[in-house]
What does this fold into?
Amino acid sequence: MKRAGRCLVLSGLLLVAACEKGERVAADNAASQPAAAQAGPPTTGDWLINHSLSDPEQLNPLTSNDGTASEILGYIFESLLTRDPRTLELRPLIAESRPAISQDKLIYTFKIRRDVHFQDGRPLTGEDVLFSVKAIKCPLVNAPFLRVYYNSVVDAQLLDKYTIRFVTKEPYFLNESQLGGITILPRHYYDPENLLKDAAVRDLLRDPSQLPENVKNFAANFNENYSRNPMGSGPYKFLGWRTGQDLDLVRDVNYWGKGKVGIDQVYLDRVKYRIINNQDAALVTLKSGGLDLIDRLTPVQHMRGTGSERFNRQFQKLLYFTPFYSYIGWNNNHPIFKDKRVRQALSYLTNRRQILKTVLFGLGELVDGPIYFFRPEYDKSLHSYPYDPKKAMDLLAQAGWKDTDGDGILDKVIDGKTIPFRFEFKSPSGASTGKSVVLVLQDELKRHGITATIREIDWTIFLDDVKNHKFDAVVMAWGMPASEPDEYQVWHSSQAANRGSNHISYKNGRVDKILEDYRREFDAKKRVELYREFQKILNQEQPYTFLFASKFVSVVHRRFRGVEIYPAGLKPQDWWVPPSAQRYASKVMAP
It folds into this structure.
């Protein structure tokens, strides 16, 4: 199961996500399924060298929230439940079975397998599960984007060494999925002094300033000292990370699930992420043998750089949708963007259809809301903002923006000062497609009296600025988990504080109420109705200019078998290489 919550992803429009497969997705994905995905029995050996456009933000399993980190941590950590990659149905992993759920849907009891151990050989028990939920619930741990999925949890108790009971204060229709998806951390590793031992989950719900010193000390240590050294119970161990160069994972030959029925097996001895922050350089490296996988070609690379007969003999290209959307985020606290008429006008000035055609070469769908385009909750009746400069200028005039001094730039008196319509896009370096979107829009805005500059910065610095609301506008994307949508993390007003995921500081009382009611609603049809209203409000207020759900175009070396497109995209953990085709010596790490 993917880690709970949404992940910010690098908008070169490089996105990772998972969701239920719709009819159109199924058709698109089936059309590009590789031939002979399975050929003979899987065998161990060989490496997969994967491309990463940037270093992960960090590798703390609870406090990281970018797409690269989420993908890497998925090799290292496990949860009580997982999902079938094809059907997305919940199934047990660390738990013996799905939980016993009380009739009022407030109590969830999990029994834990007795044969699981961490990568250092220490057994995994209920103590580790209890510690993991305490760490999430601790308000001093830097995980606000994750904690929102456990708001209803008010207590957790060990009934015995291998049985844990979660108590919630109110029903939440995703509780089984979210509780089953808790990343299980080894207590002895992440809290070696056992500082949380005497803190019950209910004790962690108090004002952070009132928490005891041992809890404060735990949080400080956890936040500061586990960003580059993850350790879990999963099939791959963390081996090393050279910033700006590469990151290595190695198959754990003593993995607890090795050879066990019902547990997914892994075969590749090593998974390496090679960090190349230029997409053209990455493609050159792939062609010269230095990479095996690029999970997202740029549209130009797909159309013009990967069509030769020689390339197709060596590599297979896979085209597929995954659940995500890209967007322009307007900082709603910025003096220019507080007025919804301004945000509406900017959407009318964004020629999305032309950008989709010329920048993405048509590889995608326009979207008008934050729900995956192919899910039933997505409202296809939403107003789709067309390119309409006249409408935009009318709205800006209504909002008081005019060129009063004849310098060609719109201006307005705000708080007693004449402010020119000038702002900055921040962009992560290397995100070529995202930058192209900004450049197209920059030129359009200039013709209509608006000056937009672009500043490119390193991904980790960029992400820190976004979390701290230190931007005017950004082009980014959200990847979504493999379950029904829950938009609380991104859109509830409470998440605009404490580095939460409401980075643009959007606040609307009715939206808050809808998001809260939705979580307590177990009737799927009623949830759809609630989210239709939610989307209509966002559509009117345009806190984002919603852009595209675009297609991935992945390229994989043909020696790999087991390559299959799932609703969540590719799953390299399933891949293997026949002995005769293996390129790298088989070396794995024993403890």
Notes: Residues 29-77+234-320+553-591 form a domain with the D-Maltodextrin-Binding Protein; domain 2 fold (CATH 3.40.190.10). Confidence is low (pLDDT under 50) at residues 10-38. The CA atoms of residues 152 and 169 lie 5 Å apart.
